[in-house]
Design brief:
heterodimer, A: 209 residues, mainly alpha, Butyryl-CoA Dehydrogenase, subunit A, domain 3, three-stranded antiparallel β-sheet, 7 helices, 7 strands, 59% helix, B: mainly alpha, 2 domains, two-stranded antiparallel ribbon, 54% helix, 10% strand
Chain lengths: 209, 204
């Protein structure tokens, strides 16, 4: 009853024919120019693989020291979460919470959600929470700020370079790898395809039961 | 197909979460595919955006006049504001980094506040504009917002690293206000519905 043969642009509401872009092509809205879809080759498989890689990389990136600093004979090392702890001890609870969410919790939840979703799709295993997970992931997208954090590490290091001696630890390299993986992940995740697959899986599940 | 037809005027609603196009004839209240609540435009888009925008305008004042970071050197505290930090960087000869921080923590937030105000005025007063250009402006505003968190993350790194007996850095009161500005403007951009710009155009 609700099956339609049209599509609509999310930003200008232009009624469109369903997009038929094939792998490697890009579909833009003819009226407002929004990128509507960019299908990727083997989107589910790649997303699954990259989510596993991201999940594994998350732990060294968070637990190993990132930057070591030596200043006037004193040494100190920084880990991803120690900035949050330092702000918290400073009494800046609100700022500490924001930093914790944007640089630790949301990236972790995002990776776990994409791991769950792509895993279920990869093994064609229906789950009634798939649509919920997909919606949460969609809402979290904007609040995962790893690449912003990377840029602020660079700025902070440049600021400190003239005053102190800096050393880079394995945590930083893992963090850079994590950013590369999450960027590839968002690039390879084909929203339209994922929603179609989720819909098919839940329909099949309903018919079977 | 029908040229330049709004989906809504043809009786369709696009699900905000999953992009499924639903016929409005039988008045479904939730999306048949993802079960999220259906609405043709973001509910109370202009009111919510205005409220969030006004709060961020107010918070933008303390964010700029109070110190964002205080460098304690042997007992003497040296506070610096957002603008002061940039001047320091440029004075020290670190011009590219200074410009980067200038863009991320002054140009982006202020142009975002002005840009969202213009979008609101345009949608509210039904200005006849080049809607494609204004939608592009909206897209840019929505994209750059998160990069303003640069300063906040940088402070958390500096507070953590520079923590010695002689010298330590603490965050100032402006940090909370600035973080709030960034988050509120991100929410404001998220709540603004660019389709309202297109609904108002008579001569498409």
């Amino acid at each position: 009853m609700n099956i339609t043969h049209y599509d609509a642009c999310p930003e200008c509401d232009l009624l469109l024919n369903p997009n038929t872009a094939s792998v490697g092509e890009k579909a833009h809205c003819p009226r407002c120019g929004l990128l509507l879809s960019r299908p990727r080759k083997r989107s589910v498989e790649r997303t699954f693989a990259l989510s596993i890689a991201g999940f594994i990389l998350f732990f060294p990136a968070n637990l190993l020291p990132m930057v070591g600093i030596t200043m006037m004979g004193n040494a100190n090392t920084g880990v991803l979460y120690s900035g949050v702890v330092a702000l918290f001890n400073n009494g800046m609870v609100a700022v500490a919470t924001v930093v914790f969410l944007a640089s630790i919790l949301f990236p972790l939840v995002h990776i776990i959600l994409s791991l769950l979703i792509s895993g279920h799709l990869y093994f064609n295993y229906p789950n009634r929470y798939l649509a919920h997970w997909m919606r949460w992931m969609h809402h979290l997208d904007e609040w995962v700020m790893l690449e912003v954090y990377m840029l602020s590490i660079i700025v902070a290091c440049v600021k400190l370079m003239s005053l102190a001696k800096l050393e880079f630890g394995w945590g930083l390299y893992a963090f850079i790898a994590l950013i590369v993986v999450t960027t590839l992940l968002t690039g390879n995740l084909d929203n339209n395809l994922f929603w179609q697959r989720i819909h098919q899986l839940s329909n099949r599940d309903n018919n079977a039961s | 197909m029908q040229a330049k037809a709004n989906a809504l005027s043809q009786g369709f609603i696009r699900c905000h979460d999953c992009g499924y196009l639903v016929k409005t004839v039988n008045q479904p209240s939730s999306c048949p595919r993802c079960d999220s609540h259906l609405h043709a435009r973001h509910p109370h888009s202009l009111q919510r955006t205005t409220a969030l925008l006004l709060s961020s305008f107010l918070l933008y004042i303390p964010a700029n006049i109070f110190p964002i970071m205080i460098v304690n050197q042997f007992g003497a505290g040296e506070p610096s504001t957002i603008a002061g930090g940039i001047v320091e960087l440029i004075d020290a000869g670190m011009i590219p980094i200074g410009l980067l921080v200038l863009v991320a923590s002054i140009l982006v937030p202020s142009s975002k506040l002005i840009g969202i105000s213009l979008l609101l005025l345009c949608a509210h007063f039904r200005w006849q504009v080049n809607a494609r250009r204004w939608t592009t402006m909206y897209r840019v505003i929505a994209f750059v917002g998160r990069w303003s968190m640069l300063d906040i993350f940088m402070i958390s790194i500096l507070v953590d690293l520079v923590n010695f007996n002689g010298v330590h850095i603490i965050a100032g009161p402006a940090a909370t206000a600035f973080a709030a500005v960034v988050i509120l403007t991100m929410f404001a951009a998220e709540n603004f519905d660019p389709r309202l710009l297109w609904d108002n155009q008579q001569n498409l």
